[in-house]
Design brief:
The protein is α/β, with parallel strands linked by helices. The chain contains 16 helices and 13 strands. The termini are far apart.
Length: 414
């Protein structure tokens, strides 16, 4: 691995050489942080080299990743990341904010943020010559793995709960993955996928289990830094709003900002806000109670991508907020669905997990958690095409009319 120095357990702090462990801490099962060789990075790459890179994908940040160049130019694997950031001036005015950005990761190859993790994990699988990569998913992580694996002719097996949205299951199948729908919830699919990985010697991509998932997801922080913080001359710390389920996205983004500070390219840590549905709020509950003890819940949210009983990266997700001066916010499914349509009116089509983050920003403004002068960015993690049922719930149905101009006039009240 090009820049990986060691792993460190997020619970007990034990460090391991990369060849000693693959997934979690053998002592306590804690998630492992990848520690990079920061001194090597400082002396081997300059800020200007990164900023001047012609690569418009996560691979422009290859010197900051724990994998070697995967190759496969001209494939979907090489087009992950560098997603657009929009200045949402209409929404900024509506909320009373002077600076607001929306980062649309629904523009990734398989239409979600999870492509970032899967691209790095598939690259790692190629490095270690793992023949099969397996994951559990409610849809997006599985689709991302299936798509990235297909791009480089790799085998993928996906365990998903049978309740996963049909559009997401269709993606898995179209990409050629072996798909097993589990008659149970996500947590049961997660546990079964690990059992299968151990039994059949498959490489497991599971979120909050494989340390390389957070390393892929941290690339969003690099892009936020380059697209907004570095180029924006912000007078205050940026406030980043992220929806939270398993907790790996928010912990990955936090890791990315920490890496930039270690290297010396970022001088002020952004404040990170974690947003959860009231129907799946295990990490938020721990935040509100003031402890690091994360207790499982019985998740009921319609936002399937963040519907989790026991967050597998909950501790790091909690610390992403507490260590940056942010906070957790919970929102109702009703508000989550309503905001799919609100974001649609500025030209962005999102799934419920993405609108959750925006709903959190709305509440943060209303509750006074951020001021009008505080710059804010909302991380939109997936396309609305992932969950058409939820999208249709956010709007009124289109009228059916007769094929006549009079019918048009009546329908439009002209």
């Amino acid at each position: 691995m090009s820049q990986c120095k060691s792993y460190q357990c997020s619970v007990c702090g034990t460090e391991y050489a990369p060849e000693q462990v693959t997934y979690t801490c053998p002592k306590d099962g804690g998630n492992l942080n990848v520690l990079l060789d920061y001194e090597k990075i400082r002396t081997s790459i300059t800020l200007e080299e990164v900023l001047n890179s012609p690569d418009r994908s996560i691979w422009r940040y290859l010197p900051l990743l724990p994998v070697t160049d995967p190759g496969f130019e001209g494939t979907a694997l090489r087009t992950v990341g560098w997603t657009p950031v929009y200045e949402a001036k209409e929404i900024s005015k509506e909320l009373g904010l002077k600076q607001l950005w929306l980062k649309d990761d629904g523009r990734n190859p398989t239409a979600s943020f999870k492509d970032r993790a899967s691209a790095v994990v598939v690259s790692r699988a190629k490095e270690i010559q793992a023949e099969v990569v397996v994951t559990a998913s409610t849809g997006n992580a599985g689709a991302a793995l299936a798509g990235m694996a297909a791009a480089v002719d790799h085998q993928a097996v996906i365990f998903a709960p049978k309740t996963a949205p049909p559009a997401k299951v269709a993606q898995l199948l179209v990409f050629g993955a072996r798909v097993l729908l589990v008659d149970g919830n996500y947590d049961q699919a997660f546990d079964l996928s690990i059992e299968a990985a151990n039994e059949f010697d498959w490489y497991c991509r599971n979120t909050g289990y494989n340390p390389f998932t957070a390393e892929g997801k941290k690339t969003a922080a690099f892009e936020i830094w380059e697209q907004v913080i570095f180029s924006g001359n912000l007078k205050r710390a940026l406030n980043v709003f992220v929806s939270v389920g398993d907790g790996n996205i928010i912990s990955g983004i936090h890791k990315g900002f920490k890496d930039l500070i270690e290297i010396g390219w970022l001088d002020r840590m952004p404040r990170i806000f974690g947003i959860q549905s009231e129907g799946s709020a295990a990490v938020a509950n721990a935040f509100f109670s003031g402890t690091e003890s994360i207790e499982p819940v019985s998740a009921t949210t319609m936002a399937d991508s963040i519907s989790v009983d026991l967050p597998r990266d909950g501790l790091r997700a909690l610390r992403a907020v507490t260590q940056t001066g942010g906070r957790y916010i919970t929102v109702s499914d009703k508000v989550i669905i309503e905001n799919i349509a609100r974001l649609g009116k500025v030209g962005i089509f999102v799934e419920p997990a993405a609108s959750t983050a925006y709903a959190g920003l709305q509440k943060a403004v209303k509750e006074g958690f951020i001021d009008p002068d505080d710059p804010a960015l909302v991380m939109l993690t997936g396309s609305g095409l992932k969950d058409i049922r939820a999208a249709t719930m956010s709007v009124e149905a289109a009228p059916i009319i007769q094929p006549s101009l009079d019918a048009v006039k009546r329908a439009l009240n002209i």
